[in-house]
Amino acid sequence: MIHAYNLTKRFNGHLAVDHVSLDISRGEIFGLLGPNAAGKTTIIRMLCGIITSDDGEVVIGDRNVEKAKAGFGYVAQHFGQYEELSVWENIRFYARMYRVTDEQWLLHLLDRYQLTSFKEQLSGSLSGGYKRRLALVCALAHDPDVLFLDEPTAGIDPVTRKLLWDDFYALSAEGKTLFVTTHYMEEAQRCHKLAFLSSGRIVAKGSPDELKEYLGDARVFRAIVPYKPELREALLGTEGLMLINQFGNELRIIVAAEAAKSHLEEIITTVTGTPCSLQTARPNLEDIFIALTREKS
Amino acid sequence: MLTAIIKKELLQLRRDPRLVGLIVVMPLIMLILFGVALKLEPQNVKMAYVDGDQSVFSNLIKTGLWSDGYFDLYEVKGKEQIIEEIRSGRAKAGLYIDNTLSLLLTENRQPHIIFYVDGTMPSLTTAMKYHSKNATSDQVTGDMYFSDPDAENVVIAPEPLVMDTVVLFNPDEKETWFFLPGVIGVLIMQIALILTGISVVREREKKTLEQLLVTPVSKSTFIVGKIIPYIIIALLDFYFILGAGWAMFELPQPSSHALLFLLALVYVAVMISLGLLISLIAKTQQQAMFIAIFIIVPSILLSGFIFPLEAIPGTVRLISSVIPFTYFVEIIRGLLVKHTQFVDLLPAYLALSGFVVVFVGASILKFRKTL
């Protein structure tokens, strides 16, 4: 449904997006995962045709971007609706931009996103979560086949985030293709397909499960150890070490296959003064994400 | 804390090089421009004349008027044409000498010549009246005494000839008649440039433009849609200000309401489309405001609104001719004060329409459907 070939973009000589190719099928929720400044927004803007690429091509459906505009919706990272207009005025305005005049349909959307009681309220006075819903309704006013969402749940509470994701699945089930950028692992985990973006390049692609294979024969260990700066220092010298990550009292270490578990345990025991035994853990997306980002940079 | 705030403000300013450029370079350009352009003393003010006498005496009078370079004389046929030349704006003054000049002079019967002067611009009128005295100075009239001073019972007139001054169009030389029509144009210019000047750049700053650019809306629909509401608002404003002028300052009625409406429509369209172009060029609302101000100030000073165009030297006059307000001033004074005919105002109307085409065209070219 969305095909991008060799998308490339430079800003003042700096290569922001480096030959990115993507193929996204109909009905798929595709997540573009990457740290800040990796080029996620630049890619989504190029896909939507509001930034011209220096090289490469975008095809949506079987049309070029300008021709495809009537068939996709876009929700920018920042609230881009008119704050001086009411919720309903904004929705009607965007509907008219796509020649949609069916008010019943718009009222249905309003209801679906729990905005009916805010219909006459000025959109500038809405809370963050409702602003996001309004933006989504405006992007859905013309019932597009494709939806581009730039960090759709950034700054949104977990309850609203879950509601939004339930809705994304519903939209996907209706046959719509969703393109989502994110840096939340939890959100990435929910996508059908993912691409990891690091410094403008795609470093890994696939379903969340397939991506976990990217660690190859590297192993993930965990142990309950409180954070100690000296411990980090001591472990950094270890051969084959790929990642040290602290979650509260949980320490996660990713190492190459050849690294000796006993050696790591020894170091931890010496530094903390308490005997330590490492447990083998399943790699999660965050492990992969950080490991891949590190590796490439 | 105070120094921190001062420093932050200065740092922020410095990060907008275009704004710094506008603040530093534009005043310099204006200073030089106005230094060169603004002279209160005009030169080569056009004067249409009829010389029915074609004598050595009438030549003396004309030479007197030429002498200090203030007036630039050209010949027309008949008294009515002198008035028409002034009405159309081709001339600011006129001189009528009938065919009895020599005869009456030689018979010492004190002939009259007529000096016509455009009263639209009272300051210029006063200056023209002052310079017209060259026509009857002693140097000119010295050789025009004909009776024998020794003869008895002959009363010699103190002056051999008399010049009658006729002030046309604004006979009472009311300053309001001169200023108010132009003031309407200035107000509309300010309202239009500021309103429209921020219209697109505001959407850019508030990030609503990004959301609009992904819609299938075409460039021309966007531009025209941006222009029309402001044209209506500015048009209503035009008549509101004009109505207030009529009610409070006895502003004269126009020779044609249809032509006045046409002027309002075209002028408002020029200013709104110029405002839109500013909005597309400016990167921030602040820049847009500055550009607008730097258009408004020279418009006021170089358009003939306050200072006569005749006082602006030739090269700078080219700038006057690319200022839309110049044509507005010409037309509105023509309609309200001088009742100039449409044929004579047509070039100014066409010039204003040309600006609309240029500004709208440039806006469509400048507007990109990308960020």
Describe the 3D structure.
The complex is a heterodimer of chains A (297) and B (371). The two termini of chain A are 31 Å apart. Chain A is elongated. Chain A is built from eleven helices and 14 strands. The longest helix of chain A has 16 residues, at 158-173. Chain A has 297 residues and is an alpha/beta fold. Helix content of chain A is 35%, strand content 28%. The mean pLDDT of chain A is 87. Chain A folds into two domains: 2-206, 3-Layer(aba) Sandwich (Rossmann fold); 216-296, Alpha-Beta Plaits. Chain B has 371 residues and is of the alpha/beta class. Chain B folds into two domains: 45-168, abc type-2 transporter like fold, CATH 3.40.1710; 174-366, no CATH class. Chain B has 16 helices and five strands. Chain B has a five-stranded mixed beta sheet, sandwiched between helices. Classes of the chains: A alpha/beta (297), B alpha/beta (371). The A-B interface holds A 45, 48-52, 66, 69-70, 72-74, 76, 78-83, 94, 97-98, 135, 138 and B 206-208, 210-217, 369-371.
Report, as a whole number of angstroms, the end-to-end distance of chain B: 37 Å
Percent of residues in β-strands of chain A: 25-35%
Count of helices of chain B?
A: 16
Oligomeric state of the chains in view: heterodimer
Unreliable parts of chain B: none
**Main beta-sheet annotation of chain A:** 6 strands, mixed
Radius of gyration of chain B from the CA trace? Answer: 27 Å
SS strand fraction of chain B = 5-15%
Low confidence ranges of chain A: none
Count of discrete domains of chain A: 2
Q: How are the strands of the largest sheet of chain A arranged? A: 6-7-8-3-9-10
Count of extended strands of chain A: 14
Number of helices of chain A: 11
Strand order of the largest sheet of chain B: 2-1-3-4-5
Shape of chain A: elongated
Return the structural class of chain A: alpha/beta
